[in-house]
Fold these 2 entries.
Entry 1:
Amino acid sequence: MVFQLTDEQAAVVELVREFVTREVLPVASRLDRNERPEDCFSWELVEKASAAGLRTLTLDEEYGGSGVDFVTTALAVEELAKGDMGLAVVFAQTWKLAQTLQLAGTAEQRARYLPAYAADPRGLLAITFTEPDTASDYFVPHDGARYATTAVEAEGGWRLNGLKHFISNGNRASLYIVFAQTDVAQSLEHGSTAFLVPRDTPGLSIGRVHDKLGERLANNAEVIFEDVFVPDADVLGEPGQGFRVQQTFFPASNAYAAATVLGVAEAAYDRALAWARQRVQGGKPIIQHDSLASDLAELRMWLDATRLYVLHAAWAGDHPEAWDPMLGALPKVLASEVGWRVLTRAMEVHGGYGYMKETGMEKLLRDAAAFLHSDGVNRTLLLKAAKHLR
C-alpha cells in the first residue's frame, strides 16, 4: 500500500489545520477551565466550522457536503484533536453519524433529514447506546444483555421510554439515533431496534451534563425518553435489527476515536520536541543528551506506527472486502495506550515545568486519559477482538 495523501486529503488537512490555528487554539484552554461543563462547549466554534465547510465534511455532495471517505475523515479528526480533543469529539460524532445515516437510512429518511442538517449551522448529531447499567454489554453482547430503554409498538409507530447517559453531544444534538429494546425476550443483539428521534420530539428531555476530567469542550449528557412517540417512518433499518445498524457505525467509530487520541498525543510530542530543542541543561540543549533524544525517537516510532494502523482501519472501512472485524476494536486500544505513554513521557521531558499548567501539558494529559475509557473501555474492546480469535 502507498501511504501518500491525495490532493483532496491534503486540502482537507490544511483546511482543518488553518481552522485550528485561527479559531481553536486561541480559546480552547479558556473554555476548558470553565467550572460548569455546559460552559465549556462553544456554539461559536460550531458555527465557524460550519462556515468553513467542516461540519458537513462527510455528507454526500447531493446533500450539500464534501462526501469525504473514512480515511480523509480520520485525518481531519486527528488534525482537529491537535487543537482540542473535545471539539474533535463533537465533530467526529457528527461526521460518523452522518455517514451512518447515509449507509443505513432509507432514501426517504435521507431526503427528510440530511438537507435540514446541512442547512442548520448548529446541526449536530448524537447516538445513544450507553445506559447506567448497559455499557460494555453492547460491545460484547451475551444472552442476558438487554437495553433498559424500551420501545413498544403503538398505532403507526412506537412508544419509547428510558434513559441514556454519557452521550456525546447529548445536550447539543438536533437529531439522535436511539437504540431501544423492542423484544424483551431476546438479547439486545437480536431484539433491539434503532430509531431516528429529532431533538424537539415531545417527551425527549436532557438530564444532567456530566462533569468530566478532560475532553471538556465536548458535552456528554443524559438523554431521557418519556413516552416518546416515534413513527414507523423513523425506524432506522428493520425492527429487531438494531445490532446490524450498530455494525455500520463501529468501524468508523473506532478509527475516529483512535485518531482523536492520536491527535492529542501528537500535540504533546510536538511541544516536547520544541522544548527539548530550546531548553538548556548540562551546558547544551537537552535534545543533545543521548538518553532524551532516544526517548523522543521512540515516541516518534509509536506515533507513526499507530497512525498507520488507524489509517489502515479507516481504509478497510472504505473497502468492505478487506475488512477485518478486529479493526473495529483494536486501533482505539493501541492509540489510547500509546497516547498515555507519549503524554507521560512528554511531561517528563519538560522536567518540573511539565507539572505546571502554564505549559499546557496538564490539559493534554487529562484529555488523553479520556480514551482509556471512552468509546469502549480498553479491556472490553480486547475481549471483543478476542471473540474473533475463537
Note: Residues 242-278 form the longest helix (37 residues).
Entry 2:
Amino acid sequence: MPDIREILPPHHKHCDELFSAAEEAAQQGNWQRCAASQAGFAAELLAHLDAEETLLFPAFEEATGMRQGPTQVMRMEHGQMRGLAEQMNAALAAQDADAFAGAAETLLILMQQHNMKEENILYPMCDQALAEQIETLAAELQQRLATAGR
C-alpha cells in the first residue's frame, strides 16, 4: 500500500496540470475551454483540500498532539487558495482575462510554496506519525481523490 508521499504529491501535479490548462485558455480568450478546465481544477483542488482537512490532518493531530503546528498553517493557506479559486471563477464568469490572470498568478505562487512545505515537511511527518494506520488512511485518501472529478 502506498504512503502519503506516494498519493498526494501526484495529485498536486494533476491539479497543477488542470490549473495550467485553465490559465492558458483564459490567456487565449477561449472561455468555453477555460470554464471546463477551471471546473475540473476547482473540483480536484477542493477535493484535495477537503481530504487533507477531514482525513489526514485530524489523524496527524491525534497521533502527535500537534494542533497548532503545521496543520494549522496548511489550513490557513487552504483558505487563501479557496478564496483565490473563487476570484478566478468570478473573473471567468465576467470573462475578465486580467482579473483571471491576477488571481491565477497569486494562486500559483501560493500553491507552489504550499506544496513544497507539504511534500518536504508535512507528508514525511505524516508517514512517520501515522505508520500504524497508513494503509487505511491511504486507501481513504485515494478513494476521495479518485471520485473528485466525477
Note: The chain has a mean pLDDT of 94.
